[in-house]
Amino acid sequence: MEAVYTHGIWMAERLQQSTGNQEKMWLVVTHIGDPKAAFLLVFPFTYFVSKRAGVAVLWVAAISEWLNLVFKWILFGERPFWWIGESRQFVNKQPKVHQFSSTCETGPGSPSGHAMVTAAVWWVVVSSLGSFLHSRTRSVLLAAVPYLLYVVMLVAVGLSRVFILAHFPHQVVAGSITGFILGIILSHRVPEGRPLVFFFKISVGLLISALALHVGLQQQLGINLSWSIQLAKKWCSRAEWIRLDTAPFSSLTRDCGALLGLGLAQYWKPGGWSLPWAPRALSLAISSMGLYHVNRLPLPIRPQALFYVLFFIKFVIVPQLVIIFVPGLVHLFTHKKKKE
Fold it and tell me: How many domains does the chain have?
């Protein structure tokens, strides 16, 4: 693997040198590919266009990110920003690369979570859009446009991860392929209309199984699963770039919280609110602002258990805001206005 890692570092160097003037663009692209964006950006936008597609996006995002966490614990992938120093392969010739504020993620590197979740989630979006366009126009060429944009997005997200030294090229390729397969499989198994107990069991089951795997790997096999966190802290250029919300357990609590929240939302209002297009657009705008502020809520990082509990609650709230609270308020006020 050392040869693969070394070639990946030189590729990152060439990418930084040849496209260094596009740094802001790469940082925007990597933020769009962040798994968190699937919950906070893609989900609300998709939901107010198509309820089924929106539920599918949240479902696929949670399951694919959970599987990515499991794969990372098992595969032990390195990350470029720490491997450069740890490998001692560049003693004579240091690569001319630098880190960014989004570089220092603390989980293992393989496969790329950005690539995997993006591939899975956006497959739901583009397949729905492609089917819609084909049903309306009967044009295969027009229906193929979303799939072409899908490929472009995956390439852009993958290159952005290599550019910022968060992943090696083979990790983003593995993540993209795995996410693509998951997107196809999971998009046909959307839990619409399922009872609350189903989501409760899924949420608790994912949490317990991940914790059991963590305990088994550490205590039974003697594997130190905090190795990546230690290396990230050691080799990150700035201490403030190490954030607890990039830690593996943050992903786990986000996924479990979002799934439980989805179940609660469908329990409170089965089928959601039926709104015309104008109120839907208003709901999307208000939901986006609400999620922006929910995401910005500062959480105490000590003790860590409290952080994870609050992080879990934060993502339980996300589906409530999008499916129940905001559309309900918009329906209330627009309905009154019509009566008057």
Answer: 1
